[in-house]
Amino acid sequence: MAGSNMQSFYGLGLLAPPPSSSYGWGGVSLESVVGASPCNSYVQDQSVVLTPSNGIWTKNLTIVDPTKPITVALVWTDRATQTMSPTPENDLRLTVYSDSSVSKWVGNNFSWGYSPVYHLCGCRYPCCPPPTWDHTNNVEKIVISPSDIASWIGNTITVGVSSQSITGDGIQVTGSMLQQDFAVVVLNARDVCP
Could you tell me the pTM of the whole model? Predict the structure, then answer.
């Protein structure tokens, strides 16, 4: 179906936009990721290792086109556990902050295809209900709507990955170190443009 036809189905309530329990994330466009230019995207591919004592990574990025959504995806390979627990051995969190750090978006929270914004309001506690963190999946995604970009973000965002828990070696199959690497892909935001 053409994109405009899909939008009309969403508007009529016939289909929920992705992600959906009926059809998951929808189709994946490898062309938009693999063929992405460094002038409109950012990729960090397993060059950072998180540990229990060093469990935070952040990257400041410049928004390319504020009229288009910003998409951020985090993936990591989780170590197999001895039990059949649905919780990953190593649990990471994906967060995006506005350039003023008063608004944030968290991985795998969606409302009609976009990630809802959580406002920090300059105080210790958020002004809206706290986000629900995903403790089940080793893939997390944030999609920031163009209206949120216009309302809450200046020219930059900060992408963050933090360890909720690292209880095994997520790099070496038979390793015993407590460590986890990961990959992040960001579309419509960049680091530097060569």
Answer: 0.81
